[in-house]
Structures are given as C-alpha cells and as structure tokens.
Amino acid sequence: MVSEASGSPVLAFEDVHLSFGAVKAVNGVSFTVNEDELFAVIGPNGAGKTSIFNVLSGVYRPQQGRVVLEGRDLLGMRPPAIARLGVARTFQNIELFANLTVVDNLMLGRHQHLRYGTLAALLWVGRARGQEVEHRRRVEEIVEFLELEQWRKMPVGLLPYGVQKRVELGRALAMEPRLLLLDEPVAGMNLEETEDMARYILDIRDELRIPMIMVEHDMGLVMDIADRVMVVDFGTPVAIGTPAEVQRNPDVIRAYLGGDPDVEAAVEAGVEAAIAAEDEGASA
Ligand SMILES: Nc1ncnc2c1ncn2[C@@H]1O[C@H](COP(=O)(O)OP(=O)(O)OP(=O)(O)O)[C@@H](O)[C@H]1O
Ligand SMILES: [Mg+2]
C-alpha cells in the first residue's frame, strides 16, 4: 500500500477524526497530496468524502488530527482564511450566482485578491483601477483556458448544466489556488461533457500545475485520470494506491459490495464489476 506521495507534499492530512454524535464521518483518515498530483477520493454514499473536503476548507472542525498545507497548520482557521491560503473548491451541487454572467461569476472568484479599499473602488482611482484591469485580464485567461468564450456575457442560470459545472471550475481557478478540491465534477454529466471535463482537469494538472483532490463516483474517470486513489468506507480509509493497485484490492471490492453473498466472486471479477453490480441493484 502506497500511503506517501513521491515528491514533496503540498498537503498532509493526518489521522483526522470527525464525528456528528454517533456518526463517525471521518475516522482516522491520513493521506498526503503531492505537488503535481491528481489525488482521487472514492467510496460509497455517506462514506465521508465531502466531510473530508469540509474539514480541509474549514467548514467542519475535527475532534482530532492535523491538516497541514505547505507547512501551515489549517486547523482552527476559518474558511475565508483557508481560501486566502489557496484552497479552492467546487461543490457537489453547483454554487454560482445564476443571475450573474460567466465573467462576473469568475470575477467574484478574484474577490480575495482585491487589495484596495472601498473608497478607492468607489472613486475608481489609482490602485483600484490598475487592479481591476489585471483581474479582468486573469479572468479572460481562464475563460479562454476553459473555452467559455461563447457564453462569457450570459447569465450562468441559462447555460447547459455541463457548462455551469465548468464555470464553477473557472471560479475556483480564478482564486489562483495552491490546492483545488473537486467534489463530483462530472456528476450528472453526459459522456461528452464528462470527456470534456476530464480534459480540463488533466490540463489543470499538466499545464497550470495545480494539485487537486477529486471526489467522484464515476469509476471509469477516476481510474483513467487519477494518479493515486484513496478509498473510504464509513469514514475509514480502506486503501490508498495507484488506480491499478486499488482496483485489485479485495478490501475495496468488499467495501462496495458489503454484505453481498457473491462478494468473493466479485473480488475475483474486480472493482469495476462490483460497482456495476451495486448500481444495478440500486436501480432495480
Ligand atoms: N453537518 C452534518 N451533520 C450531521 N451529520 C453529517 C453532517 N455532514 C455529514 N454528516 C454525516 O456524515 C457522513 C458522511 O457524509 P458525507 O457527506 O461526507 O458523505 P459522502 O461520502 O460525501 O457521501 P455522498 O457520496 O453521498 O456525497 C454521513 O453519515 C452524513 O450523514
Ligand atoms: Mg458528498
């Protein structure tokens, strides 16, 4: 089991415990994320994946553990402070301003970089003006990077779902993150939208060199693009390794098919088959 990233870690998540009453949402989870790594977190519904993101971004405060970003301890910091240190995220359910345009939603992502006071902003002088121009320039770069040009002046609420997910990614990129958290970036997308999103995620890793943690149920996508994968079940880490290592791990298959009498046969068949069986069961 590979539990350590190979280069120097950007993030260390160490023995984190978070409970809600009797529910152990995160139960002794440890992992590191490397500088140019796409790290995936998978697990059944309610496994604690979003809770890990909420601990990382300061929304939930764990009872125990350490979270260290580039040498700085994040625990106890409030979400805006953590965002300023460079942790940006996209949400499981899109969180954008539906009535604002694509460009304006991206400008809001730059909000934390505004360095001038309100008065200067009102008077539109000096630093305020120079900075506004710079922010617009950065936003236009992101519009181009994510191929959003044709929608840039449109209210986000009118755009196709897959494009809205991309705008949300753009808003996170506008924050110039040191670490990007993607919570189910392709949930609800069709195949074409999923393939587009996969390409943007890989471009973010390879061209922008931003490390990412991706929570995702689309197993094909995870196994295709992630560098390493952590599997959690009932808040507890089951395995960490390369996609190939994780796919062969019998504990992972058992986590997905817990209690199924055919589990040993499924262990033989592999993880993707186990998940397909679970999905069939759910829709039957
Ligand atoms: N604010 C909260 N109050 C109480 N319980 C919570 C809270 N947030 C999460 N939980 C519980 O913690 C557990 C983990 O939830 P979490 O949302 O992290 O799961 P998840 O892996 O993201 O699931 P999904 O795949 O459905 O998004 C669940 O049992 C959930 O009900
Ligand atoms: Mg979730």
From TrEMBL:
ABC transporter domain: residues covered: 11-259
Domain of life: Bacteria
Signal peptide positions on this chain: none
Molecular functions per Gene Ontology: ATP binding; ATP hydrolysis activity
Protein transport is among the record's keywords: no
The entry's keywords: ATP-binding, Nucleotide-binding, Transport
Pfam families from the UniProt entry: ABC_tran, BCA_ABC_TP_C
Gene3D superfamilies attached to this UniProt entry: P-loop containing nucleotide triphosphate hydrolases
KW Membrane (keyword) present: no
GO cellular component: plasma membrane
The protein's name in its UniProt record: ABC transporter ATP-binding protein
Naturally occurring in which organism (per UniProt): Nocardioides caeni
Lineage: Bacteria, Bacillati, Actinomycetota, Actinomycetes, Propionibacteriales
